[in-house]
Structures are given as C-alpha cells and as structure tokens.
C-alpha cells in the first residue's frame, strides 16, 4: 500500500521527521524574552540602588529631612531608629539647624504617626523641640518629600532651601531622584547601612519600589 512518503529518499524522511522536533513554540520564545528583560531590568535597578543616592558633599544645608519608616507601638522600629540616630549625629555636627520628620500612621490604631514617634525620639536625644517640624500625613517616599515642600515654604526656607535627606543606603537613590523630580533645588543624601534589616530582603524589595517609582515618574 502506498504510504505517501518518499521511501526512495532517506534524507527526505529525516527532514520530515526531524523538522518538527527543532521547532521552538512561540510561547516559549516569548517567555524567554520576558525572562531576559526581567533579568536585565533587575540588574539595572540594582546598579542604581547600589549608588545609595550618590556621593555626599558633607556640606551644611538648611534642613535635614528624615524619611519615615515603621513604628513599633509607641517607639520607632529598629530601622527607623537607625535613621534617627544618623539625624542626631548630623545635627550635632552642625550639618543643619532644622529637622523635618515625616510619615503618617501605618494603622489608625497606632498611638503615634511615624513623624510623631520620630519627634519624640529626637527630643529624648537632645534635639530642641523648636527645631523639629512634622509632616505626618504621608504614606510613601513620594508623599514624604511632596508633603514636605509646603513645610519648607512655611519655615521661610522656600523652594531655594538646601536639604539633607536621611535614609538607608538601599533607599538613597530613589529618594534623591524623587526630590530632584519634585524640584528641590539642592539635595544632599546621607545614608546608613542597616545592622538590623536584611540586606537581601530590602535591596530586593527596593527593585520593585524603584520600578514603581519609574512608572510614577512618567506622570509627574
């Protein structure tokens, strides 16, 4: 019985039988492309994050801005405490005369906002209360810095004020980019390397946060 195959040409049989095996489905190719793009973007974001906000000039500025982090009950979390400790050190070095602490309540049941808890900590560590100003409505880094701008104007520092942003190293680059995008005239960034937060967890999580920021940046 005739099978429809050219049995007289073995090479024809090899081509017919092997061609389908070498064909990679388009869906797999698409997935590979997506994975490669994801790996490339992750590498790029980690390089940016590693800059930790860029080189610090160590020049005095008008105001120090402490970016908010979680409260643990009535006390700043260990992570927020690290930022506040750095703020105290810089203040005592004469790096700025005024401090703005930022951050609202993580939960409505919290006794203090992040800014209020930060203020209490700074007062306990010798910072005069009249030199501490609160921005206590924000829930993100973008809001921290956006809601701080009216405070700068109220303090007669205005849009031309120079600021030192205080945060962790994994957060520095995003903080600087946001401040510059919002129109801060001069931004210095001072960062602390955490002894209490997991670097793997927070540097990895910052990739997602940095990606969200680059999306938000398109609409500012």
Low-confidence stretches: none
The profile of the biggest β sheet is: 5 strands, parallel
Q: How are strands sequenced across the largest beta sheet?
A: 5-4-1-6-7
Helix fraction by DSSP (H/I, runs of at least 4): 40-55%
Summarize the structure in words.
The protein is of the alpha/beta class and 220 residues long. Helices cover 49% and strands 14% of the residues. It contains 7 helices and 7 strands; from the N terminus they run ααβββαβαβαβαβα. The strands form 2 sheets. Strands 5-4-1-6-7 form a 5-stranded parallel β-sheet.
Q: Topology, pairings included?
A:
Layout: H1 10-22, H2 26-50, E1 63-66, E2 71-72, E3 75-76, H3 78-92, E4 98-102, H4 114-124, E5 132-135, H5 141-154, E6 162-168, H6 172-181, E7 186-192, H7 199-217
Parallel strand pairs: 1-4, 1-6, 4-5, 6-7
Antiparallel strand pairs: 2-3
Helix pairs in contact: 2-7, 5-6
What is the structure about, briefly put?
The chain is α/β, with parallel strands linked by helices and 220 residues long. It is built from 7 helices and 7 strands; from the N terminus they run ααβββαβαβαβαβα. The strands form 2 sheets. A 5-stranded parallel β-sheet has the order 5-4-1-6-7.
Keywords, separated by commas or semicolons:
single chain; 220 residues; alpha/beta; 5-stranded parallel sheet; two-stranded antiparallel ribbon; 7 helices; 49% helix; elongated
